[in-house]
């Protein structure tokens, strides 16, 4: 059952009529190309938690909450269909609430500062590319996943330093995305710590490597969840929440 028009309108206004999916951000209203007196709308108010048994992400809740704007998110038609496929198994409620919160916060900032959303959408696309470049930098280095018995201490230290330098170059490319900057800085600091602690006496390097891989695995998970990065190959083995 669709939301009441009043609730749907509220969600649309709070979203600037822009799809809340951060990988989409498509505008959902505009003019009809064939008639100057007609308009086009391809956005919908979608339920985050299903309103009835069998619906995507269904939960037993008060009808008042299920039908309120708190349980709604503004999406384009395609993204609405996407999140409800297979009973919503690929899109957890927490992720959808996060989409909504982040998008509405962005709209509030844009409205308050009189800025256009278009440059920010383009900037997010650039951030996603940089995030994937960071993942690829880590994924292609065996020091991140090879067994200690296969490692040469000198080569491992050299590889760690190379990764640190590449991450610093990626950091310079990040513009206003504070979250991505924080993740990149955390990675750089993790690699720098290993270098600092083992530059003079590398006898304990492999113990530090184990800790490093845990830190990197958690940050890779964040890049995967928050920027949609694709992680493949042997490095998948260290990714963890």
Write up this protein:
It is a single chain. A hairpin with a 7-residue loop joins strand 1 and strand 2. The protein is mostly helical and 241 residues long. It folds into two domains: 5-115, no CATH class; 118-238. The mean pLDDT is 91. It contains eight helices and four strands, in the order H-E-E-E-H-E-H-H-H-H-H-H. It starts with a helix and ends in a 14-residue tail after the last helix. The longest helix has 23 residues, at 117-139. The strands form two sheets. It has a two-stranded antiparallel ribbon. A two-stranded antiparallel ribbon has the order 3-4. Helix 7 runs antiparallel to helix 8.
Largest sheet features: 2 strands, antiparallel
For the secondary structure, the number of strands is: 4
The helix-and-strand class reads: mainly alpha
Number of helices: 8
Proportion of residues in extended strands: 5-15%
Distance between the termini: 35 Å
What is the 3D shape?
elongated
Strands of the largest sheet, in order across it?
Answer: 1-2
Radius of gyration, in Å, reads: 22 Å
Mean pLDDT across every amino acid position: 91
**Tally of domains:** 2
Q: What string, H for helix and E for strand, traces the elements in order?
A: HEEEHEHHHHHH
Indicate the percent of residues in helices: 40-55%
Low-confidence stretches: none
Short description:
The chain is mainly α and 241 residues long. 54% of the residues lie in helices and 7% in strands. The chain has eight helices and four strands; from the N terminus they run H-E-E-E-H-E-H-H-H-H-H-H.
């Amino acid at each position: 059952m669709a939301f009441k028009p009043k609730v749907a309108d509220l969600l649309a206004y709070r979203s600037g009529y822009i799809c809340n999916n951060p990988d989409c951000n498509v505008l959902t209203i505009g003019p009809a190309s064939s008639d100057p007196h007609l308009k086009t709308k391809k956005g919908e108010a979608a339920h985050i938690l299903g309103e009835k048994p069998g619906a995507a992400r269904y939960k037993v809740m008060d009808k008042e909450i299920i039908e309120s704007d708190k349980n709604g998110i503004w999406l384009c038609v395609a993204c609405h269909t996407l999140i409800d496929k297979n009973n919503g198994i690929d899109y957890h409620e927490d992720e959808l609430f996060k989409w909504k919160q982040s998008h509405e916060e962005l709209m509030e900032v844009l409205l308050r500062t009189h800025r256009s959303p278009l440059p920010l959408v383009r900037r997010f696309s650039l951030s996603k590319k940089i995030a994937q470049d960071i993942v690829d930098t880590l994924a292609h280095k065996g020091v991140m996943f090879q067994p200690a018995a296969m490692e040469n201490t000198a080569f491992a230290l050299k590889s760690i330093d190379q990764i640190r330098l590449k991450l610093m170059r990626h950091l310079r490319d990040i513009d206003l995305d504070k979250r991505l900057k924080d993740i990149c800085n955390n990675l750089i600091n993790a690699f720098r710590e290993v270098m600092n602690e083992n530059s003079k006496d590398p006898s304990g390097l492999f113990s530090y490597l184990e800790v490093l891989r845990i830190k990197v695995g958690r940050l890779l998970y964040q890049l995967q969840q928050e920027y949609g990065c694709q992680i493949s190959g042997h490095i998948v083995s260290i990714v963890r929440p």
